[in-house]
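Many introductory courses stop at the sequence. We go one step further.
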Amino acid sequence: MLRALKPELNDFWCAIPNGGKRDIKEAVRIKKEGGKKGWPDFQFLYPNKMHCGLLIEFKRPDGKGKVSPDQKRIMSSLEKVGYRCEIALTKSQAWSILEEYLSLC
């Protein structure tokens, strides 16, 4: 949806594939490449009138996925330097967060 709505902003966002189960070899490789435990799932690195970028962490709507201490720490650090960080439980909630952010660009 974002690609179609704002193609001129496609270079400013990406998903971070940190979640999921991995074997130890893959986990070590990701860590060596700079992967960080707790980094939000989606990043949109384009400033608006209030923030220098938006990061969204996705959690399950059934409440089984909890925000980890690493996620809380990283999101707090990002917010202190001007990023907006949000938790989304559904795709529609994430889309609403992104639309609100884009309305201030």
